[in-house]
Design goal:
By secondary structure, this protein is an alpha/beta fold. The protein folds into two domains: 139 residues, HAD superfamily/HAD-like (Rossmann fold, 3-Layer(aba) Sandwich); 81 residues, Orthogonal Bundle (DNA polymerase, domain 1), CATH 1.10.150. It contains nine helices and six strands; from the N terminus they run E-H-H-H-H-H-E-H-E-H-E-H-E-E-H. The chain has a six-stranded parallel β-sheet with strand order 3-2-1-4-5-6, sandwiched between helices. Helix 8 links the parallel strand 4 and strand 5. The longest helix is centred in the N-terminal third of the chain and has 19 residues. The radius of gyration is 20 Å and the shape is elongated.
């Protein structure tokens, strides 16, 4: 059966299609435990790491390499604030807290594959994710979801200019294009600014750096689950055969 495309859906990956930030939180908890051995409260560890990450991202971008570098920098900063020295062994131990992020589990969120199949019958599906190319590509491959998408894009950043460029490159019609994701900062606000529609699917563990007040809530659709998308678009049937 031929697909009859009536809309385009740009779909985020991390924490929209599969779990992601929960693994960073686990690594941060390990790091906080390590710093706790030096009498540093977990709240201070997390706040300092957050500030450090925001700076590191400016040069290294998003992903585990940037996070691992931030762990080392934060370790040095925290110990120095107490008149202590972080030697190479301790810095390496701090950075090792990030090891699992380079080959993390890929835990697909509920009903994602079947929902994508239903959407595919009448929707152009484009995965739009950001981060380290190699790490993201590996997660996409292990997820098994790539064949359900028409395009898979791994970008260094997702902002309004990014979405405007995608509209031109993919020849999309903004009134019939939706950005779907869990991040107000990267998915929702910039898509609205670029003239697209946006569907916000909150995640309990969205990264703090991606949390942001939605600038135009009246223009944003909020759905509880990814599986609610076919109902929102009034799509009937179980799956697309293609």
């Amino acid at each position: 059966m031929m697909r009859r495309i009536t809309r385009a859906l740009l779909i985020d990956a991390d924490d929209t299609l599969w779990e992601n930030n929960i693994y960073y939180l686990r690594c941060t908890a390990r790091f906080a435990e390590l710093m706790g051995c030096y009498g540093i409260p977990a709240e201070e560890v997390i706040a300092t790491l957050d500030r450090t990450e925001r700076g590191t991202i400016m040069t290294l971008g998003y992903g585990p390499t940037s996070y691992r570098t931030s762990l080392g920098k934060t370790c040095v900063t925290l110990l120095r604030s107490r008149g202590l020295h972080a030697d190479e062994g301790l810095i390496a131990e701090a950075q090792a807290c990030a090891d699992m992020l380079f080959d993390p589990p890929v835990e697909i969120l509920p009903a994602v594959p079947e929902t994508l199949r239903r959407l595919r019958a009448s929707s152009l599906l484009v995965m739009v994710t950001k981060g380290e190319e190699q790490v993201q590509r590996a997660k996409i491959e292990r997820s098994g979801l790539a064949p359900l998408f028409d395009r898979v894009l791994i970008l260094p950043e997702k902002d309004a200019d990014t979405y405007r460029r995608l509209v031109c490159e993919l020849r999309l019609e903004p009134p019939r294009t939706w950005m779907v994701g869990n991040s107000p900062r990267s998915d929702i606000n910039p898509a609205i600014e670029a003239g697209l529609n946006a569907i916000y699917i909150p995640h309990d563990h969205t990264w703090t750096a991606e949390r942001q007040q939605i600038t135009r809530p009246e223009a944003v659709v909020v759905l509880e689950r990814f599986a609610d998308l076919p109902t929102y678009f009034d799509i009937e049937g179980d799956e697309s055969p293609s």
